[in-house]
Design goal:
This protein is of the alpha+beta class. The protein has nine helices and six strands; from the N terminus they run ααααααββαααββββ. The model has no long low-confidence stretch (mean pLDDT 96). Helix 1 runs antiparallel to helix 4, helix 2 crosses helix 3 and helix 3 packs parallel to helix 7. The chain has a four-stranded antiparallel sheet. Strands 5-6 form a two-stranded antiparallel ribbon. The termini are far apart.
Length: 232
């Protein structure tokens, strides 16, 4: 099935990104014979269409920055791949796929060092800008705390459309594979994320971002819980 033949209301929704399609096709090719790849991918496309059939229509379509590469709709595509290929794929593979989509912008920020005050302030400013965009689209409810010199950057989400989607479609078992990328992203800017819960396993997704050399990190030991979430 060609991408333009995938059935969904394009007034409100967007197609998965080219990068996401490539990632899914590569994994399908690992797990199935070459003659089955197109058939399996079409099943993923049909599942994607089905998921969007009664999905909320207020996420801003292509104008919303959260709907680009690694955004809400790519997450739905990964959920679609997981639903179709559950017996072939794995938690680790979904986590790898998500990171391949989510992390490239952070790789470009390799010069950022969140142990330095200037970069912490710049990152805090970027999160405040993101919060304003979230308010515009009413998708992620995001609150950024005031920044104080020498303290970690703090913000939180109290609603997340990806977590809501996972709850609505019985996909919470794979949601941590998408959430855990936040930890890796912070490591790429010489920072460490401290998080207790997400919108998937609690009522809030809380972020405290320290420089990775901050001695206070010893009081926030990271671990992986029984559901696969990285947390502190």
């Amino acid at each position: 099935m060609k991408d333009e033949e995938v059935v969904f209301d394009r007034r409100y929704h967007v197609l998965y990104s080219k990068e996401c399609k490539k990632a899914i096709l590569e994994k399908i090719a690992l797990h199935y014979p070459a003659e089955k790849v197109d058939e399996v991918f079409e099943a993923v496309q049909v599942q994607y269409s089905d998921y969007l059939k009664d999905y909320r229509t207020d996420l801003g379509g292509k104008d919303n920055f959260h709907n680009g590469v690694a955004g809400t709709y790519d997450c739905i595509a990964l959920f679609s791949y997981y639903a179709v290929c559950r017996d072939k794929t794995s938690f680790a593979e979904i986590e790898e796929m998500n990171n391949s989509l989510f992390l490239p912008p952070f790789k470009k920020l390799g010069f950022v060092d969140c142990n330095k005050e200037l970069y912490k302030r710049l990152m805090h400013m970027s999160f405040k800008i993101a919060a304003k965009k979230c308010s515009k689209w009413n998708d992620y409810t995001m609150k950024v705390s005031p920044y104080h010199k020498g303290e970690p950057i703090k913000y939180e989400f109290t609603s997340c459309p990806v977590a809501e989607f996972a709850k609505d479609h019985d996909l919470l078992d794979i949601l941590p594979a998408l959430c855990n990328g936040d930890y890796v992203a912070m490591e790429m800017i010489k920072a460490k994320l401290v998080r207790r819960t997400t919108c998937g396993n609690g009522s809030v997704c809380d972020y405290a971002i320290y420089g990775d050399r901050d001695e206070r990190l010893k009081d926030h030991v990271e671990y992986v819980d029984a559901d696969g979430y990285r947390r502190n």
